[in-house]
Design a protein that fits this description.
By secondary structure, the chain is mainly α. It is built from twelve helices and two strands, in the order ααααααββαααααα. Strand 1 and strand 2 form a beta hairpin.
């Protein structure tokens, strides 16, 4: 059965090859734009998201992602749907690392909870454009030079092994680098000015801590994109599917952040699962020129690893070390002071 929009399965790398009409790209961009606009309007009052609200919004974002999978199934067929869902699950799972790093960054910058959504919104808005560029470049390189798969695969394996050794100070280097870059352009104020990114100090235009946090969020996303985009390219080489899965996954990151930011210790085996996932997709990509692992198998492996990590984390709770306790106390203290300043 031929998909309505035209798919050509059976390419040399066994991934689906789609004839995506221009209107489909326009429809995808319009859908993303509309969803972002509604989200920005909902949070225009800079209110503090409650856990219940974060859970509801997370479920809504997931529903949107799965609804788009249904549209892919109708328009392009089952193989394309599997590749989309595999990319979506990979990006969603790797995004957990973003959430924990953001929590540390906001605590360091002492950003009030009610302003964090504003920073993350514009951070993710920029990330969408950046991911689009990365995906376009990645798919073009793979189409022209098959051996790029070897480089991407090796990168993912090395990154996966690094994640398995998770550092407690993750994000600190990016914070220092990001603030340093911003200070080269303009002064950076130590005080907030409402939800403004720019303010004036002694008559001079200066960046507020919100803009500094935004710059660091974008910097960390560049680093994460170097991992996540090749990871998704390991399960699909079709730019439309890769970008759509990336977009729908990261648009729900803000809600996921407010839901999971404080759960790093509770789900302490997740980092190990993410490391193993990256190693797995790295190996898959490295050998893909000679041996193809079915995308449905990869999807099952990834979901199985995540489910096992969550189960193990709940079954075997982590005993906090003295260092972890001190770090958590500092995080809670920073969060509390930010929370108090939001109500002054």
């Amino acid at each position: 059965m031929t998909a309505p929009f035209g798919s050509r399965a059976g390419s040399r790398d066994q991934f689906v090859d789609l004839d995506v009409p221009a209107w489909a790209w326009v429809a995808l961009a319009a859908t993303i734009g509309l969803m972002l606009a509604v989200d920005l309007f909902r949070h225009r009052d800079d209110h503090e998201p409650t856990p219940r609200e974060a859970l509801t919004e997370s479920l809504i974002w997931v529903a949107f992602g799965l609804s788009f999978a249904a549209a892919i199934a109708i328009g392009f067929g089952g193989q394309a749907t599997t590749e989309y869902l595999s990319g979506y699950v990979i990006e969603k799972s790797l995004s957990v690392d973003n959430v924990f790093v953001w929590a540390m960054l906001f605590a360091t910058f002492k950003i009030p909870l009610r302003f964090q959504h504003r920073v993350l919104f514009w951070g993710i808005f920029g990330a969408l454009a950046l991911r689009g560029l990365f995906i376009w470049a990645g798919t073009a390189l793979i189409a022209k030079f098959w051996w790029v798969l070897l480089l991407f695969g090796a990168l993912l394996i090395v990154t996966g092994l690094k994640i398995l050794r998770h550092r407690n100070d993750e994000g600190e280097q990016e914070r220092t680098t990001g603030v340093g870059l911003l200070r080269r352009i303009m002064p950076v104020s130590d005080e907030l000015d409402g939800h403004k990114f720019l303010t004036r100090v002694n008559g001079r235009r200066a960046a507020t801590p919100l803009l500094a946090a935004l710059v660091v969020v974008e910097l960390t996303d560049i680093i994460f994109a170097v991992d996540s985009v090749p990871a998704i390219l390991a399960v699909s080489n079709e730019a439309f599917l890769v970008f759509a899965s990336n977009a729908f996954a990261i648009m729900g990151l803000r809600a996921m952040y407010f839901l999971l930011a404080g759960a790093k210790e509770k789900f302490h085996f997740l980092s190990h699962a993410l490391g193993v996932i990256l190693v797995y997709v790295g190996v898959k990509m490295t050998i893909s020129h000679w041996f193809h692992i079915d995308t449905l198998v990869s999807l099952a492996v990834i979901i199985g690893l995540l489910a096992t990590a969550v189960w193990a984390s709940l079954k075997f709770p982590k005993a906090l070390s003295a260092h972890d306790s001190a770090h958590d106390s500092a995080h809670d203290s920073a969060h509390d002071s930010a929370h108090d300043s939001a109500h002054e």
